[in-house]
Amino acid sequence: MRFTVLATFMALIAYNWFFIKVARARQQFGLKAPKITGDANFERIFRVQQNTAEQLVFFLPSLWLFGFYLSDQFAGLLGLCWTGARVLYAAEHYADAKKRGPGALVSWLIAFVLLMGGTLAALVT
């Protein structure tokens, strides 16, 4: 399961980078926790981190189902693509929240493929 592990690692590294960006943005825009509103630039950075946390709940189990029941190598590849799509989503969202669609859609589609593939493979095995 080394490819699934690698994809998990990369997804969590990206999430941690988004987390660090929020901490830095809090300092930059003078927003002390627990405040999460005020500056639109901060709110976009915060939403990327929060949305990625929400998506990890869907993505990680789907990745592991797929990797275990179908293909470790393909799960790893799709997982790395998911992380790339989340980075694209972040770049889009940081620039203009209205243009965040492509990265969000691609990452959701990848997670959905992982979920369906892993679940179907588990049911027929």
Automatic annotation (TrEMBL):
Molecular function (Gene Ontology), one example: glutathione transferase activity
Cellular component annotations (GO), alphabetically ordered: membrane
Keywords: Membrane, Transmembrane, Transmembrane helix
A Pfam family this chain is assigned to: MAPEG
Transmembrane segment boundaries: 63-85, 105-124
Membrane topology, from the record: Multi-pass membrane protein
SUPFAM superfamilies named in the record: MAPEG domain-like
Subcellular location: Membrane
Protein name, entry field: MAPEG family protein
